[in-house]
Write the C-alpha cells for this entry.
Amino acid sequence: MDLAAQLTRFARLSERLKLELRHSWMSNGRRESVAEHTWHMALLAMLVERHLEHPVRMERTLKMILVHDLVEAEAGDVPVFETGPRQEAKRERERAAMRRIRDLLDAETGAEIADLWNEFEAAATPEARLVQALDHLEVQLQHNLADLGTWEEVEYELVYTKMDPHCAHDRFLAELCETIKLDAEGKMEAGQVDLESVRRRVGRSR
C-alpha cells in the first residue's frame, strides 16, 4: 500500500475520535468528544508553556497530546471512576489498539506514534508529565463549565484527588490546579453540595 493510501486509511480511523463521546458535558448541555478534549489540552499547553517551572519541548508535547487518546478510536473511552470488566481490561485493550494503529502506517511514522503514546503512559519525561497534568486539569476545567447535574457523585471527591499528584512537580501547574479546584468548589457550593463531608471522605477536611 502506498503512503498516501496508508495516511487516508489512518485518517478514517482517527476520525472516530470526533465521534467517541466522553463522560464530560459542554456548557451547552451536549457531551464532549475525545477530539474536543484533545484540542483543549493542546491550547492549554500553548498557554502554560512560558510559565512552567520546568521547560518542555513544545513540539514533542503537542505531538504527544495529539496521540495520547488515539487508542480510544478502537478501544473507546472508559471514565476513570468506572469499575467492572471494561476498566479491568482497559490497559490491554489499549495496548492492542496501539499495535494495530502503529501497523496502519509506514514503519517510521507508526513507530513515532507508538513511542509517543508509550512515553505518555510511562509519565517519566518532562513532556509526558505535563501532558498527564493537562489531561486531568482539562477534565476538571470542562466539568466546571458543565451543569452540576451532569456530575456523578464520585466526581465531587475526584476534585481533591485526581489532579494534585500530576501537578505537584511544577509550581505553576500546582497553582493552576488550585484555581481550577476553587472553581469546582464554588460550583459545588452553589449546588448545595456538602463540601465538608466531601473533604472528610478524602482526608482533606479544613
User: Anything to note?
Assistant: The chain has one domain: 3-201. The chain has a mean pLDDT of 94.
